[in-house]
Design goal:
With 266 residues, the protein is of the alpha/beta class. It is built from 12 helices and 8 strands. The protein is 55% helix and 14% strand. The protein has an 8-stranded mixed beta sheet, with helices on both faces. α4 links the parallel β4 and β5. α7 packs across α12 and α8 packs across α9. 1,4-dihydronicotinamide adenine dinucleotide (NAI) binds next to α1 and α4. (2S)-3,4-dihydro-2H-pyrrole-2-carboxylic acid binds next to α7.
């Protein structure tokens, strides 16, 4: 089964490298990429064939679309003449619905929408997938196997996609923002930057491992750290005073709303 990736930026390369690490034969992969210097870079790094979008669409069994949502309409119009019933089209773009894609490609092309995230680069990705209307179990299994090369995969109804985008799609950026803030705070408290970075990163990794390995509710884990009248209680009071919880709610509502707007083409 050959797979083409159209749009090899951050997420396209993440998918490509995951497939290569998972043992997909490079001669069964191809890339369509508009920027020629980027195309050359990927050719050199992975030994993958870079072809035109139309050739990718004509030759591959599965075509992954990894361009920006704003470019999706043009790419679909370009490749539609080369697509045929039975092919599988996988969109990783935020906001773009399976209905939008189906309306621009020939009948019988199966469409699956995916919301991945960048930790896929280190095989710790979280990808949510939703079937379009011409999809069968085999198509979903194929996309599960495609995305499982980079981490976890969850099937969800498409109506949940905008919320999922706000959580796991954009989520790594919120975490990096928190990490960045904690490192800077450590520097403010007088620690060398390298020490502060090591402390914060390992605290994040350790806390994530506790969540995953114990399955314990985060409130319980937080209470275990919070001694009466202790340091953590003092810190948490400040986070509440500064409305960090409300800020997360507002931020994720904004991301969800932006995903909806992208669906409308803005
Ligand atoms: N970066 C992220 O964390 C995530 C991104 N996504 C989705 O993945 C998609 C790609 O995002 P990024 O990789 O971050 O963007 P990016 O800008 O890094 O990559 C897009 C690539 O598409 C190429 N491109 C543009 N028009 C093209 C065309 N007509 N033919 C061939 N290639 C073309 C660009 O040259 C670029 O290399 C977006 O739709 C985004 O919503 C989804 C989840 C997470
Ligand atoms: O910011 C964005 O639009 C993309 C989609 C999810 C993460 N990055």
């Amino acid at each position: 089964m050959s797979t083409a990736i159209i749009g090899a930026g951050v997420m396209g390369e993440t998918l490509l490298s995951g497939l290569v690490r998972a043992g997909r034969r490079v001669d069964q992969l191809m890339v369509g990429e508009k920027r020629s210097e980027r195309a050359t870079e990927l050719e050199e790094r992975y030994g993958v064939a870079v072809v035109s979008n139309r050739e990718a669409a004509a030759r591959a069994d599965t075509v992954a679309l990894v361009v920006k949502p704003q470019d999706m309409g043009d790419v679909l119009d370009e490749i539609a003449p080369d697509l045929r019933a039975g092919q599988l089209l996988v969109s990783l773009a935020a906001g773009i619905t399976t209905g939008f894609i189906e309306s621009r490609v020939p009948d019988g092309v199966a469409v699956v929408r995916v919301m991945p995230n960048t930790p896929a680069l280190v095989d710790e990705g979280m990808a949510a997938i939703s079937p379009g209307s011409h999809c069968d179990e085999a198509h979903l299994t194929e996309v599960e196997s495609l995305m499982a090369s980079t981490g976890k995969v969850l099937r969800i109804p498409e109506k949940q996609m905008d919320a999922v985008t706000a959580i796991s799609g954009s989520g790594p950026a919120y975490i990096f923002f928190v990490v960045e803030s904690m490192i800077e705070a450590g520097v403010h408290l007088g620690l060398p930057r390298a020490t502060s970075t090591d402390l914060v990163v390992q605290t994040l990794v350790g806390s994530a491992a506790m969540l995953r390995e114990t399955g314990t509710h985060p409130v319980v884990l937080r209470e275990q750290v919070t001694s009466p009248s202790g340091t953590t209680a003092s810190a948490l009071r400040e986070l509440e005073v500064h409305r960090v919880r409300a800020a997360f709610l507002a931020a994720m509502e904004a991301a969800r709303n932006r995903s909806r707007e992208l669906a409308e083409g803005s």
